[in-house]
Design goal:
Helix content: 40-55%
Order of helices and strands: EEEHEHEHEHHEHEHEHEHHHHHH
Distance between the termini: 10 Å
Strand order of the largest sheet: 3-4-5-6-7-8-9-10
Number of strands: 10
Number of helices: 14
Length: 384
């Protein structure tokens, strides 16, 4: 049996879905890398909500997906941009997500780190207000028992007048943190409001400020997450980190080579693409744990085409493809997103995502994925 998929040029192609998923196994905890998947949220499709109203979250399905990731040995990076922070999920919703996920992690013994930002600020803010917003969120995450990830702040990007403002705000927060945190540098391709972060649009100058923050407080920084989609820049930053500070790649274009590393080091992982890739990514890391870098690359390299497709410009809408694949894979019963973001990508985009994911064997039940893809196509008037 074949399925007719739109090609984006007005035509269609016949695609023959695979019959069996990729065989993966659960196993012992990872030993060579620390790996987090940034996880998506599942909307409540029966809530009477609008794009401007607070997010209506299906908590049962949202937490079930996190248990799925933990069952494969992955850590969960909670309330990050993959969870639609600032794109449908407000601070009240994020706070509840952090509380619930941290409690669930404690119950199952799962690794969790949570995003700390300033998204309770809804208008122009002073540096003092930015610090206070960060402090509120940091306190909640630490009280939940999760590790904190200091996310890039739209409010700070708007309020800061110089690199020294970033040094002051981050230095203040790191002195307050009770445990080492992860610093997150999210590039403007993920959020245009973060252009010029660290006080400069010159990435070399911004990198120097970023590293200055870490050098002043190395005991308070567990690691950094770099999401700039520039492999060589990440490698250069990684080589300049103080001893003991880890680099968690957030590069959804070049992650296999960055995680595999070179003779001067490697990156750990904190990736949105590991949401749909979870079981396969875990299988690859366990191969890497044995010292088999070639086998690791053979498993993970073929996934890059899918990742680059999902994260194509405008990159910030990658969440739509991630949730679409979770629906096809049977992790949720619908393709509804908070804020109505399921409409952010085109039908040909979805068709290509389905084809690539199916080819990788990502769907536990390929027949279910095929049926759901056909149902979506029928809504657009495509008959099989």
């Amino acid at each position: 049996m074949t399925i007719q998929l739109p090609t984006g040029d007005g035509g269609f192609k016949a695609y023959e879905p695979r019959l069996e998923p990729l065989a993966v196994t659960t196993g012992s905890p990872f030993t060579s890398r620390t790996v987090f998947s940034a996880a998506h949220v599942v909307a409540d499709p029966f809530a009477d909500s609008t794009p401007d109203s607070p997010a209506a979250v299906d908590w049962d399905a949202t937490l079930a997906f996190r248990r799925h990731l933990w069952s494969h040995g992955l850590g969960v990076a909670e309330a990050m941009d993959t969870a639609q922070r600032g794109m449908g999920l407000d601070w009240a919703g994020a706070a509840e997500l952090i509380r619930r996920s941290a409690a669930e992690a404690k119950a199952v013994g799962g690794l969790i780190a949570c995003g700390v930002g300033t998204d309770q600020l809804t208008g122009p803010a002073t540096l003092a207000e930015v610090r206070a917003a960060y402090e509120e969120q940091l306190a909640l995450v630490e009280e939940s028992g999760a590790q904190a990830i200091l996310m890039a702040s739209r409010a700070l990007a708007a309020a800061a007048k110089s690199p020294e403002d970033y040094l002051e705000v981050y230095g203040h927060l790191l002195r307050q943190a009770t445990e080492p945190v992860v610093l997150h540098w999210l590039g403007p391709m993920f959020d245009p409001a973060l252009e010029g972060y660290w006080g400069s649009s010159d990435l070399d100058a911004a990198t120097d400020t970023f590293l200055e923050v870490i050098a002043a407080h190395p005991d308070k920084v567990d690691g950094i997450k770099v999401s700039l989609l520039e492999a060589q820049r990440e490698i250069d930053i990684r080589r300049r980190l103080p001893q003991g500070v880890r680099c968690y790649t957030g590069d959804d274009f070049n992650y296999p080579e960055l995680i595999a590393g070179d003779d001067q080091g490697f990156s750990h992982a904190l990736l949105g693409i590991f949401d749909p890739l979870g079981p396969l990514a875990a299988e690859a890391v366990r191969v890497l744990d044995t010292g088999d870098a070639k086998g690791f690359r053979e498993l993970l390299d073929p996934t890059v085409e899918l990742s680059r497709h999902l994260f194509q410009a405008p990159t910030r809408f990658y969440k739509t493809g991630v949730v679409f694949l979770a629906w096809l894979a049977g992790h949720q019963s619908h393709f509804t997103m908070v804020g109505g973001l399921q409409s952010a990508r085109s039908l040909p985009h979805f068709a290509r995502a389905y084809e690539l994911a199916d080819g990788l064997g990502l769907f536990p039940d390929p027949k279910l994925a095929e049926e759901r893809m056909k149902n979506l196509l029928s809504l657009y008037g495509v008959t099989q």
